[in-house]
Amino acid sequence: MPSKSKKSSGGKLGKGEDFTEIPLNDIVVKTGNVSALDDDVPYLQDRIEGLPDGLQAYKPRSGLRKYKKTAKSFIPYRKKTKNVECARIDSAGCFSVITYSWLSALIYRMWKSNDVKQSDLYTCSIYDNTNSNTVRLEHRWNGEVARVGPQKASLARAVWAFCRTRILVGQAFFILCCIVGFFGPAIFVRKILEYAETKGMNSTVGRGITLVVGLTACEVVRSLMFAATWAVNLRTGARIRAGILGLVFEKILRLRTLGDKSAGEFVNLFANDGIRIFEGVTLGPLVVGGPLVVMMGLAYVVWLLGGWGAIGMLVFVFFYFIQMIIAKIAVYLRRKSIVATDKRVRLMTEVLTYVKLIKMYAWERSFAKAVSGLRVTERNWLQRAAYLQSMAVGLTPIVPMAAAVVTFISHTLSGNDLTVSQAFTVVAVYNTMRFSISILIYSARCSAEMIVSFRRIKTILLMEEVTHKVVKPSKPELALEIKNATFSWDAPTSVGPSSVANCEANGKASGGKSPNKEKYGKAKSKKGAPVDVVDEEEEELQQAATMEVKQVEALQNIDLQVEKGRLIGICGSVGSGKSSLLSAVLGQMRMNDGTLGIDGRFAYVAQQAWIINASVRENITFGADFDSKRYYEAIYASCLNTDIAMLANGDETEVGERGVNLSGGQKQRISLARAFYTNSDIYLLDDPLSSVDTRVGQHIFKHLIRGSLKGKTIRKLMTEEESGTGSVKWVTYKSYIAAAGGCCVLFGVVTLFLIVVCTIGFSNIWLSYWLRAGSGGVNMTREVTDGNMTYEETYVSESIMDNPRVGFYQLVYGLSIIAMVTTACFRSVIFMKVSLIASSRLHDMLFIKVLRSPMRFFDSTPVGRIINRFSTDMDEIDVRLPYLSEMALITLLFIFTALFLIAAVFPWFLIGVIPLCLAFSIVMKCFQTSIRQLKRLENLTRSPLFSHVTSSVQGLATIHAYNKARDTITKFNSLLDDHTTTYFLFHCAARWLAVRLDVITLSATVTTALLCVLMVGDQGAAWSGLALTYAMTLSGMFQFTIRLLSEAESRFTCVERIHHYIQHLESESSTEVELLNHAEKSWPQNGSIRFQKVCLKYREGLPLVLKDLTLEIKAGEKIGICGRTGAGKSSLGTALFRLVELESGYISIDTVDISKVGLEDLRSRIAIIPQDPVLFAGTIRYNLDPFNSSDDESLWAALEKTHMKENIKNLELQLNAPVIENGENFSVGERQLVCMARALLRNNKVAVSYISCQMFVHSHMNLSVAEFDTPQTLLADKKSLFSSMVASADQQMRAQLPSSQISVSR
């Protein structure tokens, strides 16, 4: 854990004093005059002290004066600051911000080095960091709740109040962008085409060049305004994302129970909903551009073509209406798909967390089927949403063409003439409108998904924080006093979502919402029908705000007084409430009656040790300053000297996630050392010696519990994150193509895209062909009056309406709509079908590969990193990669079409393209290197963030007991700031490229316009209009396409990471090797086991843990393996279950060499009672028999044998009673008994049980058999090691027990 962050030197802010504010926003952090929030003022004061010094400097101003600091951002040029702590963007001038020139130095550095680390990036701005934005957003959210109440409170309103000024500024820039972008084609394109129509006869070349300059100016302003929009919105999105995720994490740390939420669900929220919110904030405000441009277009087309022009505008209006419907449906589909994803990720988290147990039970196939079932459900919802999204994307480029067809057909059918300048000006205007509508689609979808995320987050923010008032004890000599107190757990009313997922995957019905934490003993919850699962979030939110929580009283009428310095032992049977009493003291239970008095600080050692993913030393010091004397005293008192000495890096050795490379006893002793090091006043130890052997237990009891606390109440196994270098390799694309169906499928899909683009291009070409045909050379007569004389004159008509084939032109032009819509829809369905097939196959291959990986992979890889593949990476491949690839392919083919047509009309254009291509290649070479590195760094900084969230959720009780919430938040803020930096820079790099590509495409547009003016007469006005229209589309489309291609490539890094696992993860031996001599399915019939010269080590480079072990266990024998903690007893089970293959020797069961037996056959024939009792979120029935292979009678019989039958019968739903994540609503003893019942159900001839009462042999890490016989025989031999250990233990324990007070609970 990191050390506590330094407080700002700005001083405290008390009531009546000044408050802080942040630029470009009218939100203030205010501690005075809070009215209804007065109770929160001390908390906010403490939070404000942690704000950076820069924020403390901002004082409130009235009116525009409060933006004085922000106004400096509008200075065109600002000198670089010498303050190294100042983020580069904070000292950039207006021009640098808009053009992203402040990023150029970093991009150049990344291009040169190609190996930039996180430390090489710019620091996170004080205005964008997590702490600053969390405290401001928290103030707004608290105000919203106080104003309208929790049920009606809207997180969206709080966010709007948090950043409305920035959103409005961004929208203002975008509105200017749309207006100026509209004037370019509406005024200057029309004038240039009129100049071409008259072949310059009515004006000079100078006037034509002036028109080109005016068009250029409009495009420059449009590009700058669009860049300014992104400059504001990207930073706003980064701030809101940081604030919301920080707010959620702090809320989690204030919870005493997680209710129906799991660690996997929280990871999914931080992974996916954070992205949804960022995109919703950055793109959502751009929705204003669509209606504005439609209104301007309507007015302009009606002015240009008359009333018939309005008919074509109805196409846009209709499409806009369709987008509103799509957005509503998208909310529904997104909600459903998120629920499905949550279920899958939640089950995946359980599978990966307890993969060792799953392997021992040979449940891989069954859990793979369960995950596959959830994936099918998820895919069905994703597929519906994908079809809808693809239809919208596919129809977007067709809309302007369809509008043009409808407009021109209606206009000409009414007898009106149509000129080249009119036609292609309207086409250019419609293409401008297409840009706004394209953004409208994305904006509407992102806004809809953001709203879904807000609702999900609101359910967390409204979770109840169980607190009760703590007073001072009645006497000064008391450390703890409980008077007539009754404590209860929140009772689950039904089965939770996780179990719903499990039951759905296994064909069982289940209902209801997940339980809150409950302890089951003899107490019985109130009767009531289970609540059905409700997916509709509105009803869920209403229930969250109004539902009364059921409670189960676990401790009644408790009276307890504990004097300072006394040692108290609490005894009782399994499930009697021993752990509940400690939980009550720690504030994790509801106190319904009585009082709780505490005088002193807590240290807490949980029954299941909580270890953070850090070094041994960091686990012990736990964020406190290092005190060498006390540290080494803690090491000695906890008997860790020998263990640390054997680690390659001593106490600096990384212990891995959840301490995966430590034994259970070592983890518990580290937890004890942590408690000692804190030098607290009250120590709560929940069965602290259960995982250590007798000698170590005696040492700890003597030197730690009765000694140091008297008077007071392996090497680094972490693997680096896989980070590729250079461009995404072809093998990655090949793997995705293969998953989609192969090269033939790819060719078919690309052909469909090409057909769609050709149909759209044909529509424009046909229009040019029609207009160029004119009247078809028809001679017309007209009366001419010359003075008093009137005569008829013959002339060649210039009106297309006089062409005898006008009907044919109209028919073909009209039918092009049908061709465009039909091909686009067909292409959309096929593309999304293929994309989801690819993602699903990748998911299935990844899951099977991970599940079949040996245990050493899971021991050295954090679960958060693996979950990252199944959550964020799969979400990218499921949703974003298809969207980006689809858009990129469409726009890329449009660009090729545009360049081809321009070059066909003006061959001289190719000369101007050469320097543009050179500039483009230079820019792209720099950009591609940087964007790939930034994306990979973003991936790298994401995994530690998720691992920290998972670890914090699992260790809430310990964090609360040690009062380490602030340190945990500080570390979270640091990790999120690192990720925010890479995430923000990644998007800024894309905009850096966009601005520079706009310069290149603007040059192409200017070149085409100049050719239209200078080569007037060489080409017809119709073909000039076609070329200029396509050139205008390049200005926005080119940079958009390159950005899409770059982002698509960066998303392919997710495919790269998954492909890396699929290709490089080592697999266990075959699961289905036939038994020797085709042994019967009843093998083993007897259960005799023989170890013959067995040697075992966990991985290359480590010493042997089993060396030449020879041992024979006869059928029916019950053998106890005794040894000190860490001696290698568990390694026997590891070898027997073949979790690690032997170095030499062999193990046989009933004379069959187990190395010749398939893993599934072997493991399914051995029962296991694990050292750490594992229960899955679900029901009692699900935990006993996850895959419905036993009837109820067998389940009850197994429970009766483990003395749990009565306990389960006392539960309201009995076998269907809910079990929350990790079985936290049962005591550890009850969990162990359920695990025993689970093992009994298997009825195997061989059973392995890890017992917590362990004694030692003389070897530590090199297990061998010192003596082997029955306990009676060994005890009779006074010279045996076993006899001496029992005698020593009995003598020492007899001497120690009388001085202790024992409390026996019923």
UniProtKB/TrEMBL annotation:
This is Multidrug resistance-associated protein 5-like. It comes from the Eukaryota. InterPro entries: AAA+_ATPase (IPR003593), ABC1_TM_dom (IPR011527), ABC1_TM_sf (IPR036640), ABC_transporter-like_ATP-bd (IPR003439), ABC_transporter-like_CS (IPR017871), ABC_transporter_C-like (IPR050173), P-loop_NTPase (IPR027417). Residues 505-533 are annotated as: Disordered. PROSITE patterns: ABC_TM1F, ABC_TRANSPORTER_1, ABC_TRANSPORTER_2. It is found in: Membrane. Keywords: ATP-binding, Membrane, Nucleotide-binding, Transmembrane, Transmembrane helix, Transport. The chain crosses the membrane at residues 167-189, 209-232, 286-305, 311-333, 385-409, 421-442, 736-762, 811-832, 883-902, 993-1016, 1022-1042. Its main location: membrane. Pfam families: ABC_membrane (PF00664), ABC_tran (PF00005). Residues 536-765, 1089-1302 form the ABC transporter domain. The gene is LOC106807554. Residues 172-441, 746-1050 form the ABC transmembrane type-1 domain. CDD domains: ABC_6TM_MRP5_8_9_D1, ABC_6TM_MRP5_8_9_D2, ABCC_MRP_domain1, ABCC_MRP_domain2.
